[in-house]
Each structure stands twice: as C-alpha cells, then as structure tokens.
Amino acid sequence: MVAEASYDEKLATLNLVEAVEPIQPSPVEAEGRRPRPGPSPRVLAAALAVIASFMIVGGLTAAAVSDDQPQQAGNHSATLGARVAQAAVLEPTPRTVDAYAGLGTWVDVFDYAPGYQGEGHTPSVTPDDIDAMAEAGIETLYLQAARHDDEIVGLVDDTLVTEFVVRAHRARIDVVAWYLPTFADVEADADEIEALIAYDYLGHRFDGVALDIEYINSVPDVTRRNGRLMRLSAKVDAAAGEMPVGAIVLPPVQIEIVGTEFWPHFPWQSISPHYDIWLPMSYWTFRNTDSEWYSGYTYNETSTRLLRENIDDPDALVHGIGGIGDTATPAQYSDFVDSLVDTESIGGSIYDWNTLTAEGRDLLEASFSDGAGASLRRP
C-alpha cells in the first residue's frame, strides 16, 4: 500500500496532460453486444450472510443491535461492529442503472483510506460524512473501494468500506464502487473488480461498479492498451451479471480536440457493448480560463454529444462529472446542471466531495431539487 500521497499526486492520477501528435495504432475489430441479464435478486439466508460478514470484516461481531440505537463515536475500527450491526440482514434488491441517476458525489482513497494520507495527515472524509451527504441531497456515493497495489487485492480497507456502504444505505444513498485499472495485468485488474462485484455484507452490496478508464503509464503503446481495455471490459461484463457497469471516461473534447496524443483512437465502439452507463470526466476547471472549454456547459455538453456519436448511440445513458469542486464558480455549477438537462443525462456530480465547498453543495442541492436539475431526480 502506498505509504504517502499528496493531493498533487491525487490529481496526477487523473492524467489530464495535453498533447498534440497522434499515434497511429492498427485497427481493432469491434465485438458484438452481449445482452445483459435482467434483474434477478439473490435472496441470502441470514446464516450465510453472517458467515460472509465474518469473512469480509475479519471476524468482527455484528451483534443484534436495534436500528434505532444511536451510533458510537470513536475509532472506526473499534466501533465498526456496533455501527454496522445497526443494519439488519437485508434481502438484496435488484441492481439497476437507477444507481447512476440523480445527484452523486465522489470519494477516493486519498480522502479516506489509511496508508494514502501521508505522514501525520488524517482522513479528510469519514463515514460520518454520510449524514452531510444526505442533507445535501446526494443520491449516490461513488467510492473508490479498491486500488491496484501489490500488498492487497479487493477492498482498500474492509472496515471503512463496509461502514461507508452500510451507513449510506441506511441514509437511502446508493454506493457505486469504482476502480482505476492500470492495464499492466488484465487478470489482476479483473480480480480487483470481481471482488467488488462479489462484495456482500449482510445483504449490503455495491449498487454498481464503474471502471475509471484513463491510466496510460503502465502500457504506453496505445494498440496494446486498447486491446487490454477491450479484454478487461469483456471480462467485467461477463462477471457483472445483473450489476450495471459504468465507464468513467476521458471526455471526447479532451482526447479528440484539446490533446489528441494522450489516448488516440480510443476504442469507443469496441467497448461500448460492455457498459450500461457512461460517465465522462468533464473537468472544465482544468482548461485555461481564456479557453472556450472553460465552461461548465460547453465542455460537458460537447463531450456528451461526441461520446454518443462515437458509440453510435444517441440514447446512451450518461452521468456527467464536473470538477474540481472548489475551483468552480457558482455560475459554472448552474451552467453544468443546464448541460445535464439539455443532453438528457440521467444524473450528474462534481468531483469530489472533499473539494466541494458548502456553497457548492447548497447550489447543487438547490439545482437538483427546485432548479433545472430537478428533472434528474429519481422518482
């Protein structure tokens, strides 16, 4: 696990470098769409769920505690058993693309997971933030629940992830687990994602899983990287079953107009059969302030339109991501929400919860409640 990490490193993982010269890869053959099975909820016996919970949280006891019992304060590891025990064994509900609808928010490992904070730093986001998310009208938490590291496969922190999931579900917030594949080892990436798909604590499962498709450093050759992306996408699709799979992608404006060398000839149509929802990272705040793309509306609207053209699906489901929270202006927040509505996206969010100011949270909550974005709310 990474011993130290700064916010600069966190932003560096976004790989938002601009480039100019395209690389010409050989053509790739498109794959056919595999029909995704319809919802078929798994009903788990209480005894099996309890056994599974012991496997996940290392034997922490989930005592029979009333759902109305107040939560304990203190160290998360010491109190996890009492906290998560407040959720009764659930009969898992169908997992659908509704998990990606409405207002979402993002949390990555640099915000919450031990080992990623750096010497002397404390987590900037904890499960206690779930209450504030609920008050801000958040409907889905996008949580980086796994990360490619040599020392660990699966959840970056069993206890913390479990507490996030249980507390979010108690607050009626869905949780979509996301993962950044490196493509250095397709099997290793697939193992990480399959662990997220299989995660189950007393019936609490992730409501969706999404791949953050942007890392290029491990496989510089674009033809080889495209091939690995296609293989991984097919593997995840086959493993996901009824779980909806999201593709968190670099916005077309970035890789087709602003910096065409970064990931040329991105295999849009080859991977499109394997994803149910698209989440373009329309971070207009990274653009120059005198650029036409420094716009909460134009950057996301154009990227969403081009994305649908690239996959030849004008009705593709999209959840737009804007960012970065504390560098966006109130007017840009409003423009971004307008772009979501005008493109008929099913939801939207700002990256990320940690950088969202109180004003930003209020603006988004108002926009998705009584403003233009009210149409994006779930029924």
Structure explained in plain terms:
Helix 3 (76-84) packs across helix 6 and helix 12 (330-342) packs parallel to helix 13 (358-369). The protein is built from 13 helices and 8 strands. It has 379 residues and is of the alpha/beta class. It is globular, with a radius of gyration of 20 Å. It has helices at 7-12, 46-56, 76-84, 109-112, 129-135, 158-170, 186-198, 222-240, 252-258, 268-271, 298-310, 330-342, 358-369; strands spanning 102-107, 140-144, 174-179, 208-213, 245-249, 277-282, 319-323, 347-351. The protein has one domain: Glycosidases (TIM Barrel, Alpha-Beta Barrel). Strands 1-2-3-4-5-6-7-8 form an 8-stranded parallel barrel, surrounded by 6 helices.
- CATH first level: which class? Alpha Beta
Whole-angstrom Rg: 20 Å
Strand % is 5-15%
Specify the helix fraction band.
Answer: 25-40%
Note the main sheet: 8 strands, parallel, barrel
Give the CATH topology.
Answer: TIM Barrel
Shape: globular
Head-to-tail CA distance between termini = 41 Å
Mean pLDDT: 81
Tally of extended strands?
Answer: 8
Spatial strand order of the main sheet: 1-2-3-4-5-6-7-8
Unreliable spans are 1-79
CATH superfamily: Glycosidases
Q: Which class of secondary structure composition applies to the elements?
A: alpha/beta
Number of domains: 1
User: How many helices?
Assistant: 13
- The assigned CATH architecture is Alpha-Beta Barrel
Order of helices and strands: HHHEHHEHEHEHEHHEHEHEH
Task: Please sum up the structure shown.
This protein is α/β, with parallel strands linked by helices and 379 residues long.
